[in-house]
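Budget justification, computational time. The allocation requested in the original proposal was used primarily to generate C-alpha cells for proteins on the priority list. As evidence of use, we reproduce two of the resulting records. The first is shown immediately below.
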Amino acid sequence: MQVSALLIATLLFVAAACSPGGDAQEAGVPIDETPAPVVPIRILALGDSYTVGEQVGKLENWPVQLVRKLRIEGQPVAEPVVIAATGWDTGDLMAAIVAADLQGSFDIVTLLIGVNNQFHGGAIEEFETGLATLTDKAIGFADGNASRVLLISIPDWGVTPFAASAPRAEIAAEIDMFNAAVRERAEMAGTGFIDITGISRRAADEPELVASDGLHPSGQMYSEWVELIYPAVIEIVDSID
C-alpha cells in the first residue's frame, strides 16, 4: 500500500515532538508561568504608650508609619500587630501577650517597654527580670531567630513640659540606667538595639516633638524614630529573602 507524503510528514512531526530531546514549548505544550504568591511581611510591635501612640492619630504612631514607609519603598507588608497600651509596665505587657494567644510567627518583632517601671519607682532588678522574659518571648514570636528582634530604648519623659517641676537630672540618670539594661539584654540575647532616646531629649528645645498633652511624642517625633528603625528593618527583610 502507498502511504501519502502528507501522512509521512505528520508521523515524523509527532515523533520529533515526543522524543526525549524535544522542546515542550516548541511542540505546543503550554508552560505554567504563574508567579508565586507574595507573602506579606508580618510585624509585631510590643510595648506601652510609646508604641500604641498615645495622643496621636491612628496613622501617626511609629509602627503604622514604619509600615507606610516600607510600602512606599515597595515592600509587601501586612498591617502591624500591636500589643501595647498606655501605662503598661513589663508585667502588664507579659499578661497581655499571654491573653492575646498569638498564632504563627512574625518576620520582625519590636519591644519598647520600661518607662512605667521607672516612672513608678520600680527596682532596676525587677525590670531586668521582666525584660529578659519579654525578650525571650519576642524571640519566640520571631520563630526563634533573635536577629529578627529589635529592642528599642526608652524615651526621656523628663524633658517634657509635663515634667517641668520634676527632678529632670534624676529622671535622666534613671532612664540611662534602664536603657543600659536594655542594651545589655539585646547584646546577651543577640537581638538588635535601636537608641531613640537622643531624639526624645531634643523635645526640651523642640516643642513640636511633643504631643498636645505635653508628655507623649508627637507624630513628628515618631517619624524621626522610624528613620532610625527603618534601616534595621530593611536589613532583616533582606536576610529573609
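The second record produced under the same allocation is shown here.
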Amino acid sequence: MTIFIFIFGIVIALAAAARSTWSPCGLSMLSQITPLAEAGRGQKYARTAGWFVMGATLGGLTLGAATAVAARACAAAGVTHTAALWTLAGCAIAAAAVDARVLGFAPPFVRRQVNEAWLQEFRPWVYGGGFGWQIGAGVTTYVMTAAVPLLVVIGALSRSAVAALTLGALFGLARGLAVLLGARLHTQAALFAFHRRFDAWTEPVRRAVIAVQAAVAAAALWIVAPATVATVGTVAALALVTIAWSRRAHAEQPEPIAV
C-alpha cells in the first residue's frame, strides 16, 4: 500500500457515500427511519438508527472484504506503485466521464430497492440492520455514481487487505450516518420541508462528486506522470468538470419507494 492511494481511497469513499444518499433507497430511509415514522410504528428512532448505522458499517466491511481479495491478488501479481497510480488515474477519469454523461451511459446502475414490507413484518433490529447492510454494501441497491466501482478499484490497487477493509468500512459508516440527517423530523411539515431542501442539493452533489473524481485523477497523474502528460490529463479532467457543471442530468430519476 502507498499512502497516496489510501488517501485517494478515503476521498473517493466519502464522495461515493455522499452521492449514494441521493438514491431512491437513500431517500426512503430518510423518510422511514425518522422520529416521526418510528413513533408511528411504536418504536424508538435512536435504537433503529443505531441498528441502521451498524448494519451499514457491516455492509461496508462486506464490500471491503471482497475488495481485499482483489488487493491480495494485485499484491501477488506484483503490481507496482507506478502501475497502480497510472491505473487509478485512468479509472478516476473514466468514472468522472461516466458520471458526467459523456460516454453514452450513466448511473443509476443495479436499480434494486430494499424490501419495504420489512417495515411491517420485522422488528427494528431486522429492518434497521438489514436495510443498513444492503445500503452500506454499496452494490446491492441503486448505484448512483461510478465512484462506487472506483472505490473498489482503489481498494484493490492498495494491495493491502487492511486498507481495502478500512475503505469499505468508511464507505459503509458514512452511508449509515446519513440516516442521522432525519433526527429532528418529528412532524409531517418538517419532513416535507427537509426533503424539499434535500432535493435541491441533488445536482450540486452530483457535480461535486465528478469534480472530486477529476481532482483525484489529476493528482495521481502529477505524482506519477511526466509534466506534459499530467498537464494534458489535468486539462481533460477540467473539461469533464466543465461539462458536468454546464448541464443537468437528464436520465430518468426513479421515485423513492412509498413505504
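A brief technical remark on that second record: The CA atoms of residues 92 and 217 lie 5 Å apart.
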